[in-house]
């Protein structure tokens, strides 16, 4: 494959299954926009480009579509990479690492350097025993096909070293770019009074039924719940809302193009997931000064809720602890945390420095 000697012209290729929604894909859109603004050439290979995030595709990106939203369609990536000869391939999350493995296997020495982000917890206590054993074995194979691993927090970086068995020098801590308000996006529908907020896909991982089941047990019987997101669990969750008689207290209006206004207004942001990475909505709540209640679903959660003033971390499956934490933050007059201003290194510049390093090593 031809290589350039001028890093500012480096060609970055990344990929995603669909644009139906999800934190990994949403963060990828922000990163691609930043790389383009820095003067890089960016190609995105998308299985099905339709969906809630389609409007976030950055201007100037080179889009290759597969016209197939199934995961297996992504295994066509080696032919596209061989044709385009990018300088770097970026794997945007755990969900996509098998595609990176296939790319390395098919292209061998001709494969460009691959950098992959750790987007979810690598220790999965929700998995059955045999599945967990297989998953740990799979993680140990990652150093063989990845040139670099990107963790969003130091604790996630340490977890990558331990679980993957990868050299610490190949792990780089780079947070996702901060979310900015989307100009022209309609504000999500919000209750008139105080409300709890959940933001994320209606997927099994998120375990929104825990939050819905807590609503009748709260001391404040007037508090309402707003869940912004869409997914395959909608029918199940709507059925639970009906069974508990919460039709007037729980609303699920679907995906919100820009949830920031709701995050800023919410009495508390709540996550009840089995496993997470570094939830972008928690960083958005930090910036807005909104308290958080979250399950200990990844090693990054205590890094985000690092003081009792910022929120409460609870066990993954403890209904009583969830109710107690929510009651604490629903006390009228409870002080909200001070907004947290992100003052660290620019994530876009850090990514580009890493990409240039990998491309330079390959050229050498």
Can you summarize this structure?
This protein has helices at residues 23-37, 77-84, 97-107, 129-140, 154-164, 208-214, 234-243, 260-265, 280-288, 301-304, 319-330, 347-363, and strands at residues 11-18, 41-48, 62-65, 88-91, 114-117, 148-151, 171-173, 195-199, 224-228, 250-254, 268-271, 292-295, 311-314.
Notes on the structure:
The structure is a single chain. The protein is α/β, with parallel strands linked by helices and 364 residues long. Helix content is 34%, strand content 17%. The chain has twelve helices and 13 strands. Mean pLDDT is 93; it is low at 1-6.
Keywords summarizing the entry:
364 residues, alpha/beta, seven-stranded parallel beta sheet, six-stranded parallel beta sheet, 12 helices, 34% helix, globular, disordered N terminus
Strand order of the largest sheet: 3-2-1-4-5-6-7
Q: Span from first to last CA?
A: 14 Å
Structural class: alpha/beta
What is the strand tally? Answer: 13
Overall geometry:
globular
Helix fraction?
25-40%
Figure out the total of helices. 12
Order of helices and strands: EHEEHEHEHEHEEHEHEHEHEHEHH
Largest sheet: 7 strands, parallel
Q: Approximately what portion of the residues adopt beta-strand conformation?
A: 15-25%
Poorly predicted ranges: 1-6
Q: What's the gyration radius in Å?
A: 21 Å
Overall mean pLDDT: 93
